[in-house]
Amino acid sequence: MAAFIEAKELRKTYRVGKVEVQALRGISLGVQKGEFVTIVGPSGSGKSTLFYLLGGLTRPDSGSVTIDGVDFASLSDSQRTRLRKSKIGFVFQKFNLLPTLSALGNIEIAADIAGRGAPDPEFLKRISAMLGIAGRLEHRPNELSGGEQQRVALARALINQPAIVLADEPTGNLDTKNSAAVLRMLRQSNQELGQTVLMITHNPEAAEYGDRIIHMRDGEIVTPEEDPQWSPHRPAEPLRS
Questions:
Q1: Which alpha helices (DSSP H) does the chain contain, by range?
Q2: 75 within 8 A of 69, measured Cβ to Cβ
Q3: Are the CB atoms for 45 and 54 separated by under 8 Å?
């Protein structure tokens, strides 16, 4: 069966002054529809570069990224933007909420940018309840805790019901309790909404929430044994219905 997300021989080099830094050295991977895959590795391993390439936010020097049978390289910039809007939701370590808008306004603007107008009220109600922010929608970001802000950011990523959720260190700015809550919610959205989730993290405990773990080091995919920072933890408990 063809992979829903497929990367082939991705290479990316950045120039820092007179020095060339190889961020990716021929990465190939496939992700099936509905999988929850976590990508782990130390700083500088190339995992964030891979995130940007898989999301179509930048182009590789060589290689290809195919989403649901569509090769990003075959698309114009405007077509790539439309594909991102229709199929991909992004969650970042920084919440990136607009400070002048309420939580609801920050969620609604994602639907507006995607050209959908107002979000589906029933779906908005569902994810607000699922994320535990139903009573906080009228508050602005500075009136919300860090965990609440990240849950609003997650609702914003989910509101257009994307087929893919890409999360880059979504618990990086959160304490242990809020980290666990956000990870459970990502897992729940994967299971209940059927989204394909790729999450980048440096945290082994967070990585255990995925169905499969991909290890990266020095711009390459490696085995767990080749990743000296990896220390396996007890798998996360399954969500209870």
A1: 47-54, 77-87, 103-113, 121-131, 146-158, 176-193, 204-207
A2: no
A3: no
Helical (H) or strand (E) element with 11:
strand 5-16
Do 207 and 201 contact (CB within 8 A), yes or no? Answer: yes
Side-chain half-sphere of 96: how many Cα atoms within 13 Å?
A: 15
Helix (H, G, I), strand (E, B) or coil at 87: helix
Distance of CA 209 to the CA centre of its chain: 14
Does the global pTM surpass 0.90? no
| CATH architecture of the region 32-58+74-226 | 3-Layer(aba) Sandwich (3.40)
Q: Are 27 and 10 contacting, i.e. CB atoms less than 8 angstroms apart?
A: yes
Per-residue pLDDT tens for 208-227?
A: 999 999 999 999 999 877 77
Report the greatest alpha carbon distance in the chain. 55
Map out the domains of the chain as residue ranges: 32-58+74-226
